[in-house]
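Tokens for chain A. Residues wanted.
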């Protein structure tokens, strides 16, 4: 997979996940936030995005996306997202989501 393809798919996944109106909750107070992808954490956002993508791209993402995997060279640090199979990853990335007022504005994926 090429970086541009992953970025395009992630953008589509954000749209698909947001259309499902997922509900996020405050961890401390348990109060609900506004429905949609905006108030979710980076980890939860990525999970929801790839869950949505797995539904439409079965061969590309289903059972091929893994989260919070330890780096081989430093087991204490974790990779946000790995695509492929253990020890034969097609892509490793660090995800950064920037949100303003609950609206996802930008996504930065680094390899």
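Reply:
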């Amino acid at each position: 997979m090429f970086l541009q393809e992953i970025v395009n798919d992630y953008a589509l996944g954000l749209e698909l996940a947001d259309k499902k109106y997922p509900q996020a909750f405050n961890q401390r107070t348990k109060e609900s936030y506004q429905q949609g992808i905006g108030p979710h954490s980076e980890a939860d956002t990525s999970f929801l995005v790839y869950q949505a993508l797995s539904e439409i791209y079965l061969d590309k993402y289903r059972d091929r996306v893994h989260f919070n995997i330890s780096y081989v060279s430093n087991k204490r640090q974790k990779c946000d997202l790995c695509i492929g199979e253990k020890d034969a990853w097609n892509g490793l990335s660090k995800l950064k989501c920037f949100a303003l007022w609950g609206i996802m504005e930008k996504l930065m994926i680094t390899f």
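The chain has three helices and four strands. Residues 3-19 form the longest helix (17 residues).
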